[in-house]
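Limitations
The structure tokens in this dataset are predictions for the assembled complex, not deposited experimental models. Users should treat interface geometry with appropriate caution, especially where small molecules or nucleic acid strands are included. An illustrative entry is reproduced here so readers can see what is and is not provided.
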Amino acid sequence: MAYEVVIGLEVHTELKTKSKIFCGCSTTFGASQNTNVCPVCLGLPGVLPVFNAKVLEFAVRTGLALNCEILPFSKFDRKNYYYPDLPKNFQTSQYDLPIAVNGHLDIEVNGETRRIGITRVHMEEDAGKLVHAGSVTKSDYALVDYNRTGVPLLEIVSEPDIRSEEEAKAYLEKIKAILQYVDVSDCKMEEGSLRCDANISLRPEGATKFGTKSELKNLNSFKAVQKGLEYETLRQTDILEDGGKVIQETRSWDDAKGVTLTMRNKEQAEDYRYFPEPDLVPIVVDPVWVEEVRKNLPELPEARKARLMNDYGLSSYDAEMITTSRAMADYYDAAVAAGADAKLAANWLMGEVSRSLNNAAQSIESCPVTPEKLAGLIALIAKGTISGKIAKTVLEGMWSSGKDAAAIVQEEGLVQISNEGEIIAIVERILAANPQSVADFKAGKEKAIGFLVGQVMKETKGRANPEVVNKLLRERM
Amino acid sequence: MELYKLTAHELQQKLQTKEVTAVEVAEAVYNRIDAVENKVQAFISLTKDRALEQARRVDEKIKTNTALSPLAGIPGALKDNICVQGTKTTCASQILENFVPPYDATVTEKLVDADTVVVGKANMDEFAMGSSTENSAFKVSRNPWDTDTVPGGSSGGSAAAVASGEAIWALGSDTGGSIRLPAAYCGVVGLKPTYGRVSRYGLVAYASSLDQIGPITRDVTDCALVMNAIAGYDHRDSTSINTPVPDYTKSLVKDIGGLKIGLPKEYFVAGMDPEVEKAVYAAIEQLKALGADYKEVSMPHTEYALATYYMVATAEASSNLSRYVGVGFGHRGQGDDLISMATKTRTEGFGDEVRRRIMLGNYALSSGYYDAYYLKALKVRTLIKRDFDKAFEDVDVLVAPIAPTTAFKIGEKVNDPLAMYLQDVCTVPVNLAGVPAISLPCGFKGHLPIGLQIIGKPLGETTVLQAAYAFEQSNDYHKRLAPLGGE
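Predicted assembly:
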């Protein structure tokens, strides 16, 4: 039987507010253990939380960007469970009245656009981190680092509208892009600032009733999400095809082994005993303020992609690639604003610049070549001052020295030679030295000219204008 | 006259006229503590060094004629669930036996700013859960009027200290009557302010939506003085009310002509001691004689208040107390793993009543029971609030008993939690509605004091204090001293 996969995702993202959600402690990542703490986030007896208004603004911005309805009256609730990284043994979260509901976003997979519903967006506090001596199972004790305790989180819950692991990946990429665009999160999965749980079930194709789901945890990268879902799809398919029943349970993805393993079943599921947080007052949102936030939202990925296609004539693929990351898109716009040819800028950004970033394991934000400097390089190419090939060498120089392209070209004498007079002598020498290639060309072997051009370029250390060389070679054969 | 027998406003006079020094006052109180504390058992800890240092600072200021607050140099006690930086705050629980808060409660800060002298931390029922102070892990406080009876609870240590001269004033906390009941049993004045009038920051939580700190004093004037010192908005407590604080001493006028008082007939429950009932009716007659207009009002949901209270309060408590697992602070039980460590910590650290309420609360919040218990209780709470709103359309204050009986014998109700809970039947509706209420003496049954409750509108402390002051000034109950030590 053919089965349809039904997936819903819960994304947790840490907000990049300066201070924590209920106290004034810093949210800086990587501080030494237990330094960003105070009586409030340590949950000492007698303390009370005070809600950070910046978190509300970030949540509303996110809700609006995800096409949600912002609830005029929402509240915090306590989610009660015991865990040593949670100093109060309850997490202040939102239960039945979250800040934003009923949104959606569109994803594109294999050229097809699909709309994924967003059930809700809610605010909550993060927990601390357990540090074990050695491995978790062999360690005699655990230490707790409370620095992360109380860092603000948004939980974004999708409808079960996702139908494949590819769609799940596209959805996550889109969420990440939007969070970065509205500037509320760094979305660094490796630092845990973006986390994902997945609910997945199967049903016979055409059925309307949902099958029994499993909840996947510990999906720590986009790749893990994709692989975990892939594995779980196969596992559930096998069970159903053998005539078995999927059990409702929480499963953990083991990245090393590439399998999901039972964490707890339905009977062992926690009863969180939610109830309204009595130490905080309900959140009443002024609709006028919401409209103000909406007006001040930055251009979102879809709008930006459309603008790049319309204004600069970029292909859908190129525009998509550039706008997936806000930082990349900002870099691109800045380069174009600095006078770079739009198409060349797109090629260079997605080509050489991205390659160099990957090699150096750097992000576009810390790219040593500024958009203005890249525009300078592109201008030299566009004017024909240097060849594309030389430009790659120049970019390397810019990367390491931070100098302008023009300065490097000047210093190293890399200006392209387009003057026929300067090239003719070399062309003739090469023709004389390679009679076989000339003969081949004359016999109709078009490829032979490539070799000859290469020889001339070698002779001129790449500075000769390849078009001029080509033309001269043909004239003389 | 012994200094410890005086009220704060009387001592203030003597300090200002330089008749006595703050150090002399503090020493007089500590001498009294040395003399009677073995009988009263009001304190969990004393902070004498710090107190004398505070007193010396006040004397310096008096010498240099620095302007002083009315409570400057006046010794008082803090219930041991109010945090004082660097001083043990135990909540009368083994689990916090050695907990030293690294911060001050907002009220502590305010009282230090007002140059008061804190003599010590008063005994209480563990985590403020109880009506007799017998639930303290450390000691049973005694009623200074009869040391075989309880002082009431949960702020029993605070009330006993004030009634016995071991403190001039005290702070208690009131979640379901914990200031008013011991004030009534010990024959002193206790005010539970409007929810949000006094910051809860630094008060170790029992039930967050009901807890409120308030004064316990010898008379209504001192009550107003302490309120002036502790009331006010606090940005660290999101539930605190951001409106200006009136000068409560302005309410200390004897004229209550035209004041509309109401008696909620439902407060005279079955089991009400006839002598208590008689004293309350006599008080109403007295208020009428002073010019008040009287009418009987009906508050039909009163009978559900106690049940509602025990759902809401225990639910919140189950969550508030879940932090005590021996990880970051407090007692730690030795276990082989996380669960056994937490279980041991809590079994060793919590007393029976605390465990009972944690279990009740968890049960009320459990899936499958939430709607029937917790949610239903929230709905009834709204109805009880509406009873008050409706009553206050017709009257300015409500007058009622504090408890069905006077102080009972130590040990009498310890094995009967329901009988113990019934002591709160007249006080819990006030906490559920969040309104202010005072307890003050209105007579005696034999040698034991009877308390009168005057309940006001939200932020109606001024009217409550005015009615209380007029009543107090028309009798001499507040001038009688507990016979402790045979005076």
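Some entries come with short summary sentences. For this one: Residues 56 and 433 of chain B are 43 Å apart (CA to CA).
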